[in-house]
Each structure stands twice: as C-alpha cells, then as structure tokens.
Amino acid sequence: MTYPTAASNPPFAGPEGLWTADPVELAARLFTAVFVGQGAVPLPQKDVSEVYSTLAGLGGYSLPDVRSGNTQPLGLTVQLAQEAILTWERATIATRLSAGSGPVSQTITMLRFGPGVLTSADPVAALKARLH
C-alpha cells in the first residue's frame, strides 16, 4: 500500500517502518521533531493533532485534513503517537493537558526535563536515561 509522501528522506519507511521501530527511539525522534526550537519557550505546547501529523511526517506520509473513523494509516498513527506520549509522561519530559468545556482542547506540554532531552546530542540516549 502506498501513502502520500510528506518528507523526501523520512527516517522511517511509511507506517510499517513506524510500527516496527524501537518504541523509545521513535518517542525520542518524535519529541525532538514536535518541540524543535521550543526549549527556551516559557510553556512549550503543541496541539495533539500536530503530534499526529509530525509522526506521519517521520514515516514519510501525510494524514488527511479531515480525520475521522478507524481508517489507516490514521489509526496506526494515533496509536503510535499515544504510545510515544505515554513514554514522554513516564520520563517526565512532557504531558497531556486537556482544557475547555464542550469541545475539549488536547495539547502536549513540555515539562522541565524536556529541554535536556530536546537539546541533547543523543536524544534517544537522553530519553532512555530518563526512563531508568
């Protein structure tokens, strides 16, 4: 199955490449891609939909503008992004934040140990160290 291309040299080969990647490496690469340039921002936040789009970009494909239902590769992308976010939370580098009444806004907020991973020469090793 082929998917629309989002990047010319993605680090992972499509949804299948994301699915078979080492989960901690994927979480670290996604974290640095999502929060690039945000280390000095007082409260770095990204909408969760940006996390999904960024993950798809790491796999070299794009998600549709209208995201509904259990379609692929959207379903797989959401699953892997949520796993990465859980890894970030376990490492205390970022967390989910919900706000609003009625339509709830879902954002991801970088925590105080996040900049250390973000600016590390080896973000994968830095994330692994936070997990142990």
Overview of this protein structure:
This protein has a three-stranded antiparallel beta sheet. The protein has helices at 14-20, 23-34, 48-58, 74-90, 114-118, 123-131; strands at 45-47, 94-99, 105-110. It contains six helices and three strands. Strand 2 (94-99) and strand 3 form a beta hairpin. Helix content is 46%, strand content 11%.
Record the SSE blueprint:
Blueprint: H1 14-20, H2 23-34, E1 45-47, H3 48-58, H4 74-90, E2 94-99, E3 105-110, H5 114-118, H6 123-131
Antiparallel strand pairs: 1-3, 2-3
Descriptive keywords:
132 residues; mainly alpha; 3 strands; 46% helix; disordered N terminus
A few lines on this structure:
With 132 residues, the protein is mainly α. The protein is built from 6 helices and 3 strands, in the order H-H-E-H-H-E-E-H-H.
Number of distinct beta strands: 3
State the secondary-structure class. mainly alpha
Widest beta sheet: strand line-up: 1-3-2
Q: Choose one word for the global shape.
A: globular
Q: Which oligomerization state do the chains in this entry correspond to?
A: single chain
- Give unreliable regions as ranges: 1-6
Biggest beta sheet attributes? 3 strands, antiparallel
The share of residues in extended strands comes to 5-15%
**What portion of residues is helical?**
40-55%
